[in-house]
Amino acid sequence: MGAGLPRERGWRVVRGAAWSLAVLVPLAFLTAFFAYPVLTLVARGFVTDGALDLGGFSEVLGDARTWRVLRHTLTQALVGTALALLLALPAAHALYRRRFPGRGAVRGLLSVPFVLPSVVVGVAFRALLAEGGPLGFLGLDRSFPAIVAALAFFNIGLAVRMIGSVWERLDPRTEEAARALGASPARAFATVTLPALLPAIASAASLIFLFCSTAFAVVLVLGGQQFATIEVEIWLQTTQFLDLRAASVLSVVQLVVVALALWVSARTRDHAERALRLLPASTPAPRLRLGRGASGLDRAAAAVTALAVIFVGLPLTTLLVRSLRQDGAWTLQHYANLTTTGTNALTVSVWQATRNSLTIALAAMVMAVVIGVMLSLVLSRTPRRRSARHALRGLDALVMLPLGVSAVTVGFGFLIALDKPPLDVRSSLVLIPIAQAMVAIPLVIRTMLPVLRAIDPRLRQAAAVLGAGPGRVLWSVDGPLVTRSLGLAIGFAFAVSLGEFGATSFLARPDRPTLPVVIYRLLGRPGEGNYGMALAASVVLAVMVGGVMMIAERLRPVGAGQL
């Protein structure tokens, strides 16, 4: 008995120290490379001659341009979110409540846009809508509908997954009972199924609104200054006008919008998780019927799913086809030109930029996975004390902020904040990987956390009762599930880092650009050759990202959570 007590106290000390490090190391990393640069940039706009000056708020918020930018941001985000949900709801019914040949392929196709780099999405829609493109006759190039369509295209896969993963777990007997009592199919859906789906729909809407409101490359490529959002306006104020005060005020405004979207997302996600725990597993999905006796819902779902496939497939197909065409003939010349620097466009070849992107993304992925795994393990705990549970909820919200705060703000904050010891890394090659890791860390956490939270705490308690120490409990209980979900987390981190453009556009050296930066530079230079190279480079980037995610999807554990 006497020897057991000191041993138990020793384990408690070791366990406390280990969990403290698991919290403090990621927080130190996020504080140094996220909070400090962002707050430094914001503070620069509110300090004049060493004194606090809030006059920038009245100047910026009193400018009609600011309200026009805010109106564009909210309008584009709201309409883009609504369009994505309108297409996603019927598609989720067909893909998750019904089965048909090729269902897996359609699911995969609709998931492609979400993992594509935003600059590729912008280039794909330019190729589709520009003069000479398949839909060029509509005159929608550089228009509001083009931006909204691209935003919906980017997020439709996320909406289908989030809604469909809940819908397939609903017990169909509830709706069948309503039908047996005389309700029409439409009324049974509206009164039984739709209320059960509302938490998932609200959670998807809040996340899609967040991604739409912080879109940068899509708006920059398709709309430019004419349809500038807050994100684009921050970039313009810092790079074109050198107005840090205006950029700081806009960053605060964007932070408020992001915080509200994250709060709504967290609340609705909690409701959805609680609801799912109360529902029984669903029965195998019936076949999708389109002939005689088919329901109106099935027919509508099939029609909208086909429309969604066309909506997703057409820009991607157009991008590929136009990259293989020159002067009306089929050719690989645009791909051959990737070994050159274009016509007065680049300082290095596209293939050199591709190597840079792969090297930088690999370093960013390692950092994001290490920090993300540590935070996921901490956030998956269920402490007994109420104050500790509230602290974990607060930590969960804080680590999500890099996903929504302007990447432009982060990149420019790096330039003005990380230039003095001990954080003098402005000239270091690790600067871009760190910035990209900031964007990838929340995705790693959102990928791994639902899997870890699914572990029954009694398993850990049973292992401890049988004499396993803290390390052995972590290795034997949490370890297998961490390993199973790690593949998808690695894929997300690597893919997101490959396509990151906002912060990298500030930090990339002229002699070491990444592939998204090179694509944007090619688009900004006149000449058919440069434009063709931008199309070919976009295809290369899309294939790289798609290949990474295909491999990662094969490693997805059964029941892995969604964003």
Kindly describe this structure.
The chain is built from 22 helices and 4 strands. The protein is mostly helical and 563 residues long. The chain folds into 2 domains: 1-47 and 324-558, MetI-like fold; 64-298, MetI-like (MetI-like fold), CATH 1.10.3720. Strands 1-2 form a two-stranded antiparallel ribbon. The chain has a two-stranded antiparallel sheet with strand order 3-4. Helix 1 crosses helix 16, helix 5 crosses helix 6 (144-167) and helix 18 (457-465) runs antiparallel to helix 19 (470-499). The longest helix is centred in the first third of the chain and has 41 residues, at 4-44. The protein is globular. Mean pLDDT is 81; it is low at 274-282 and 558-563.
Features:
MetI-like fold, disordered C terminus, mainly alpha, 22 helices, two-stranded antiparallel ribbon, single chain, 563 residues, 4 strands, transmembrane, 2 domains, globular
Q: What is shown here, in short?
A:
It contains 22 helices and four strands.
Shape: globular
Going by CATH, what is the homologous superfamily of the largest domain? MetI-like
Number of H/I helices: 22
Can you tell me the CATH topology of the largest domain? MetI-like fold
Radius of gyration: 25 Å
How do the strands and helices of this protein lay out in sequence?
Blueprint: H1 4-44, E1 47-48, E2 51-52, H2 55-61, H3 64-96, H4 103-115, H5 118-129, H6 144-167, H7 172-180, H8 185-213, H9 217-222, H10 230-239, H11 244-278, H12 296-323, E3 325-326, E4 329-330, H13 333-336, H14 350-379, H15 386-404, H16 407-417, H17 431-453, H18 457-465, H19 470-499, H20 502-507, H21 515-523, H22 528-554
Antiparallel strand pairs: 1-2, 3-4
